[in-house]
């Protein structure tokens, strides 16, 4: 394997895999995308991530790196000559990392709970309230971090944009599937504009899942998870 050979193992539908792919696109790094499924994961993935056994897995020169935000940071450091992803200022960098962790640890679980609340209105309402509280915090964070520009990272997509942006199509699908309002003009006008700028960016638009395809996958995913009792 060539020292600079780059592979990404993951599913087209995964918001976490999207993070790795967008980071590589920002840096103009060529890579091979190896499609994985939720049903049967490859031997390469299981060997490369024996601890969590999940994607994405990023392989650079034969060496695997796991966890999406760690992958994004690695890409930013290794291909440092390309556009910066993490902020250069130490405080801004720490702040971006804080909110990215918040998205994964607090906000994403509430959004997933809306998706999984199929026919369970009380659970959906509780999860929706939590998700919207999180979006209100992120709306305020955007105003502070963007400094009046298009992205959390300023005039170009940065770390926090990637952290939240990977979920955008899932947000659209959940709004359709569960008839709820998340990112909209009335509650989060800045995030609504940000979402459009993010989706239209050259590093993003070609890897974002198509909404209808993801909608069909979401129905399959919910049914599968509920059948296994792992929701």
* Number of β-strand runs: 4
Helical content class: 55-70%
Helix/sheet category = alpha+beta
Mind telling me the CATH class of the largest domain?
Mainly Alpha
Order of H and E elements = EHEHEEHHHHHHH
Strand content: 5-15%
Mean model confidence by pLDDT: 95
Q: What is the approximate shape? A: globular
Q: State the strand order across the main sheet.
A: 2-1-3-4
Largest sheet: 4 strands, mixed
Termini, distance in Å? 39 Å
Point out poorly predicted stretches: none
Assigned CATH architecture of the largest domain = Up-down Bundle
CATH fold name of the largest domain: Glutathione S-transferase Yfyf (Class Pi), Chain A, domain 2
Task: Summarize this entry quickly.
Residues 4-83 form the GST N-terminal domain. The protein has nine helices and four strands, in the order βαβαββααααααα.
Question: Which SSEs are present, and which pair or pack?
Answer:
Layout: E1 6-10, H1 15-26, E2 32-35, H2 43-48, E3 57-60, E4 63-66, H3 68-78, H4 90-116, H5 121-146, H6 159-165, H7 168-178, H8 189-200, H9 211-228
Parallel strand pairs: 1-2
Antiparallel strand pairs: 1-3, 3-4
Helix pairs in contact: 1-3, 4-5, 4-6, 7-9
Q: What can you tell me about this protein's structure?
A:
There is one protein chain. The protein has a four-stranded mixed beta sheet with strand order 2-1-3-4, with helices on one face. The protein has two domains: 73 residues, Glutaredoxin, CATH 3.40.30.10; 132 residues, Glutathione S-transferase Yfyf (Class Pi), Chain A, domain 2, CATH 1.20.1050. Helices cover 56% and strands 7% of the residues. The mean pLDDT is 95. It is built from nine helices and four strands, in the order E-H-E-H-E-E-H-H-H-H-H-H-H. The chain is globular, with a radius of gyration of 17 Å. Helix 1 packs parallel to helix 3, helix 4 packs parallel to helix 6 and helix 7 packs across helix 9. By secondary structure, it is of the alpha+beta class.
């Amino acid at each position: 394997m060539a020292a600079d050979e780059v592979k990404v193992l993951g599913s087209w539908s995964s918001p976490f895999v999207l993070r790795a792919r967008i980071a590589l696109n920002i840096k103009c790094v060529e890579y091979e995308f190896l499609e994985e499924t939720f049903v049967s994961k490859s031997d390469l993935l299981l060997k490369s991530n024996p601890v969590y056994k999940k994607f994405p897995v990023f392989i650079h020169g034969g060496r695997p790196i796991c966890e999406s935000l760690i992958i994004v940071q690695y890409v930013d450091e290794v291909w440092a000559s390309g556009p910066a992803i993490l902020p250069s200022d130490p405080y801004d960098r720490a702040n971006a990392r804080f909110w990215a962790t918040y998205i994964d640890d607090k906000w994403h679980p509430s959004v997933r709970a809306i998706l999984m609340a199929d026919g369970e209105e009380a659970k959906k309402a509780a999860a929706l309230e939590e998700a919207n509280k999180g979006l209100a915090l992120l709306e305020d964070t955007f105003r502070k971090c963007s400094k009046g520009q298009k992205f959390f990272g300023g005039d170009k997509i940065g770390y926090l944009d990637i952290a939240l942006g990977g979920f955008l199509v899932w947000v659209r699908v959940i709004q359709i599937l569960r008839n709820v309002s998340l990112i909209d003009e009335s509650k989060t006008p800045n995030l609504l504009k940000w979402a459009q700028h993010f989706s239209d960016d050259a590093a993003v638009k070609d890897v974002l899942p198509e909404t209808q395809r993801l909608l069909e996958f979401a129905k399959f995913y919910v049914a599968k998870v509920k059948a296994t009792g792992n929701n």
